[in-house]
Structure formats: structure tokens, C-alpha cells
Amino acid sequence: MRSGDTVRRSAGPWTPTVQALLAYLRATGVTEVPEPLGVDDQGREVLSYLPGDVANYPLPDWLWDESVLRDAGALLRRVHDASIGFLAATAVPGGAVSGGTAAGGSVVDGAAAVPVPAAAPTWQLPAHEPVEVVCHNDVAPYNLVFRAGTLVGLIDFDTASPGPRVRDLAYLGYRLAPFVADAAGEDGSDVVGRLDPLARLDALVAAYGLPFSRREVLSVMVERLEEIADFTDGRAEETGRSDFLDHAAMYRADARRVAALAEDAPPA
Fold it and tell me: What is the pTM of this model?
């Protein structure tokens, strides 16, 4: 919930790690993420509120402007690159690491001293190999903040965990290219139907700036969708909500369609 210029949300065992990650990202120049402000007297996590519009479903037509692809790919690259130092700083609790960082102490970047956890970090989701960066794990329109159609923020890092870069990039491509079946426009608009998802995926990868092949990104996308479908089935069983079963079915149908595209894509 929003409270003035802050957001209050349920905390968990992972909250100190996520808040330390956000502090690190901001201190290293990634100010598009919320500022961590600790917990309140009710034990809720407190974050700064990022003013702007979040692209919730049904998605607005302006979301499909190619500038969004370029900005989202570039922002994700900056977040990933900055997170490498955080991983180094938390890798050996109580010990020193290279690059001017001290695990369990602070990370010095310019004039900023950034606290990092003294104990091993706790993540809500498991790490995935190869560990290259801290993945957000849910980079999608509903977690992107815009002002006048321009991307200005990335929120909701609760499910962050270490993993490979392409894991985040593939899911962002699923949502923004898009390959997701429910990417309908506002008021029945046919904007999405006129898009070329494969060409847009290529543009997103180019904006990210590393040479992932189309086949590699699509293959990881399939893995992510199958994983999300299994998770959603579990949530349906826990909650008794039949709509979760519908979502899981969509993810699996999307995975089959993307898998066929991956097979036809050149390997490099």
C-alpha cells in the first residue's frame, strides 16, 4: 500500500538482502529503483514511492513503442552490471573481496559507503546456474514505471535471486516482444496483432548489448514458462483458485509455441 511518499509491503526473511541490494544499486548510480527505508512499527518493509504509471493489464498502446524496448533493455543491463559488485560483496561474509569492497561491511563507490549484509544473503527464490548477476526474476510491464510513456523505474525486487543474465532478458522479451497470449491492447486495439515479436526480441537483445542468439533467448523463455506454469499450478492447489489453472494453461501453450520458434531460429 502507498503511504504518502512511501510504499509499505509485507516483509520476509529475504527483505534485508533485497533492501541491501537496492541500496547498493542506487549508490552505484541505478536510481531507477526504489530507495530502501527499513521497516515500520508494524514490521512492514518501507520503500520510496516512484511516481509514474505502471503498465497493468489491459496494456496501453503506448507500451509497444520501440523506445520502450530500447529503454527496458538498457535499464536491465545496468541493473545486472551493478549487481555483480553486490554478489562479490556478499560472497565471503567477513572477508575482503577485490574492487574496493568488503563483505559484511560496506561497498565504497565514489563517496558512497553502502552497507551489505554481514551474513550470507537470503533470497526468496533459489539461485540458478550459471550465477552471473542478481536477476530480478519478474521484469515485466507491471513492474516498470513510466512517465509520459518514458521508462523511469523498475520496482518489486522481492523475488530477486542470483542467476544468469539471459533468464531475466528472456522473460522481459516474453512480455514486451510480446509472446504472451494475453497481451491485448486497450479497448480492443489491434496494435499487438501488427507487431513482429521476433524482430522486437532482436531489438531488445541489441539494447541489452550482449550477443545472445535468438534461439538461446527463446529456449530460456520456454524453460521459464514451464517453471512458472508449475509454480502457478502449485498456487492453485494452495489457494483453490481456478483462475490460476487458466494462467498455468496459458503459460504452457505459450511455451509450446515459443519452442517451435526456437527450433526454427538460427543457433547463433
Answer: 0.90
